Amino acid sequence: MNAESKKVSLIMPCYNCAEHLDVMLASVYGQTYDNLELICVNDGSTDGTRKKLEAWKPLLQARGIQVVLENKGNGGAASAINCGLGLFAGDYVCFPDSDDMLMPTYASDMAQYLDTHPEKGYVQCDWLMCEGGGANVPFRWRRSHDDLHAGEHLLESLIVDRAAHLVWAFMVRRTYLEQWLPGLRIYDGWQVQEFPLLLPLACGGMYGHVAKPLYFYFQRAGGFYSRHFLGGYAGAVEYGRRLHRETLCVIDGLPVDDARKARLRLLSGLQLLRNGLMLSRRYENEADRSSWLRDLADKIQTLSPSGYRPGEEELSLLYEEWLDVLISHLCTGTVRPPACPETPQEPIAIYGAGREGKKIISLLLAQDVTISHIWDQAAVDSDLGRYGGVAVSPPEFDRVSSAEKQRLSVLVTIMNSDTSQTVCDRLRGCGFAHVYGHRQIRAYITASIVPRFLAGGADRKGCTQ
């Protein structure tokens, strides 16, 4: 191992983590970087956390790591971070969680990046994610960086989850931290520390990226995220609302102009709507889902230059796409239709007249799209009615001529991705040349509504870029 000149400080909040602490501290012990300082802030733990930290201290010191143990009353992760920020002496600083694990080169690889990239104030690594945290559970490599959302719109991208905001994957220069975090204190109104730390840092520019996994993240059943976001509909919604309120407080303190603060506040509200719609769908709460959709329709009408307001059926099907339209509008001031590698051409055939299929059929007919066939397996045993003068019929493809199979664009409206793929493969095997799955259909329809948002137009043909 080398004797590095730059000291790296690890500020680690600890709360009731005795069960998992050995793994993290062993990974700190095993770092290939010599000039380390570990600051453990025991945030009022009631288990054996303090005793375990004290047992590890001489072992880490014998390894040459400077160790600071600080005990305080329980105040949450943000409060513990503030405590550590008042104690650290390093040139670079990281914020690992006490129940995860570091790769051996976690400190050395990111410190080397900052050493060789003086123009960057901070850097982020990739990580390996394990859901559950048990033995023999596979890890998934998660990338932290996306060039599509870099640069001047980083603040906006962080708020709407288009850029990773996981503090343990970052290393920050002390001088940069002092510049963008006056007094070396983050907002600590609640337990979370991600936005209070990363939003101020993002005001200074884009971070660097080490394109390798240097951190093991365990998403545990009893962890903060699982307790608040996966513990049932009511708790998850309240978590989202509280996170939104806290985000607004952080935004108010950012060193940006009032116009940008207003955009950031709107984006946080859109992220709240996204979470609410996702949760109401997951937990099948139709009453709240209708309320979330009305709120989204209000936002669209307010932000649309043409005052366009979509109907509930359109929003129910395309809320994700509409949110992306609004987010792009607020982040960059421009809106582009979604990419369609191949655009369906009329005449159109529909496979699937279930709940989602009926919504798609209704939207297409409202835009005067010519539908020549509607197929559904359930039509074998029952009459499913007519749409636009076209009866829903069983999928008897031998009645379709070879020439028509080459001409038709078949839209498979089945939501389940595996079933949809099976049907698409079957249709292609039967000789249909143009078959589109659910995501392609949504992109096709969304491309037709972007002009309405911008100027009230109704250009429904094609996916122009």
TrEMBL record:
Pfam families: Glycos_transf_2 (PF00535)
CDD domains registered for this protein in UniProt: Glyco_tranf_GTA_type
Annotated ranges, domain Glycosyltransferase 2-like: 9-124
Gene3D superfamilies to which the protein is assigned, alphabetical: Spore Coat Polysaccharide Biosynthesis Protein SpsA, Chain A (3.90.550.10)
Gene Ontology MF terms: hexosyltransferase activity
Lineage, broadest ranks: unclassified sequences, metagenomes, ecological metagenomes
Protein name: Glycosyltransferase 2-like domain-containing protein
